[in-house]
Amino acid sequence: RLAACGTALLAVTGTAGRARTAPGRCVGGAGVPLLFMILLPVAYAGLLFRPVATAVCAAIALAELLTIAVTDSAASPQGGRLLIVASVTGGLGVLTWLSSLQRSRLDDRFAALTSDLEVLASTDQLTGCLNRRAFNDRLAEEIDRALRQGLPLCLIVADLDDFKQVNAPYG
Q: Please, are residues 76 and 27 in contact by the beta-carbon 8 Å criterion?
């Protein structure tokens, strides 16, 4: 994914496959109106990637801007514009990293809550034993395993009538 981020940044800034007019001079560079489009991959990185990958994508964008500033001889008149784009890219990189970090924390919390909910849905709160639905699911798994391995399966189910009358006074 990071390679796609770097490729997108190169394509947006026009440094990939540009025609050269003279040695060391590229068409475009800091004067390209699409230079602000370098922000898009950085912004989308915060939506798609984990925090480390988001930070790397922002660093790639800043390295691209630095490369334009160093290699483009026409960058000096556009230096103010390039500085603005670099500042906005750096700020956006920090914001997308923070949002990616928050999203990552929320995803982890959601996974933990989902796991807790699965446990609560399959166990009896008082005894901690599997409930009827979980029992049926586990029984189906064991029947499938016994059939698959060709092993015998024995099952004993006991049901106590009026158990509440015994449990209430004796616990």
A: no
122 contact partners, CB below 8 Å, separation of at least 6: 130, 131, 133, 134, 137
Instruction: Judge contact between 74 and 29, C-beta under 8 A.
Output: yes
Through-space distance between the first and last CA atoms of the chain, rounded to whole angstroms: 59
What is the model's pTM?
0.57
Distances (CA, A) of 58 to 28, 38, 53: 22, 10, 9
Residue type, 22: A
CA gap 144, 148 in Å, rounded = 6
- The tens-digit pLDDT sequence of the chain (171 residues) is 444 454 444 444 444 444 444 444 445 555 666 677 788 888 888 888 888 988 898 888 888 888 877 777 665 555 677 777 888 888 888 888 899 899 999 999 999 999 999 999 999 888 888 888 998 999 999 999 999 999 999 988 887 788 778 777 876
Residue 28 and residue 14 in contact, taking contact as beta carbons nearer than 8 Å: yes
| Residue 100 in tokens | 């990616």
> Which residues neighbour 161 within 8 Å (Cβ) at sequence distance 6 or greater?
none
